[in-house]
Design a protein that fits this description.
Coiled coil: 29-56
Strand content: 5-15%
Keywords: Coiled coil
Number of strands: 2
Distance between the termini: 16 Å
Oligomer: single chain
Largest sheet: 2 strands, antiparallel
Shape: rod-shaped
């Protein structure tokens, strides 16, 4: 009975690990960070536009249109950065949990663990 339970548990762990097979956590985290940088650059460009508008234009309809566009771009980018930061935090949390999970599996079930791109991932499951 105990062997059956261990076998079932190993099978379930194998399925869970297979679900992450080929998923590039480091690549996705890097992509999110680049998206955040891009939005920060967009905010800076909009701020530069606002500064130019404030120096060059007299009050009027055209000025308000450009000012509204710049403010909208800044607000949109700020919102996107907030969402991307939350996503980034979720990825870091998931990576941390996977590291803990892989160490737990390695000690409980004699699994080999490899280090890929600085993150501990399950390598080979023995006896499944």
């Amino acid at each position: 009975m105990h062997d059956h339970i261990d076998s079932f548990r190993n099978q379930q762990y194998s399925r869970l690990i297979a679900g992450f097979d080929g998923f590039d956590f480091v690549g996705e985290l890097t992509r999110i960070e680049k998206m955040i940088e891009s939005q920060q650059e967009r905010i800076q460009e909009a701020q530069n536009q606002l500064n130019l508008i404030n120096r060059e234009f007299l009050p009027g309809d055209i000025e308000s249109v450009y000012r509204d566009r710049a403010l909208t771009a800044m607000n949109d980018s700020s919102d996107k950065i907030d969402r991307l930061e939350i996503l980034k935090d979720c990825f870091i949390f998931a990576i941390t949990k996977l590291k803990v999970f892989s160490r737990m599996l390695a000690s409980d079930f004699n699994l080999s663990v490899s280090n890929v791109n600085g993150f501990t991932l399950i390598g080979v499951i023995v006896g499944v």
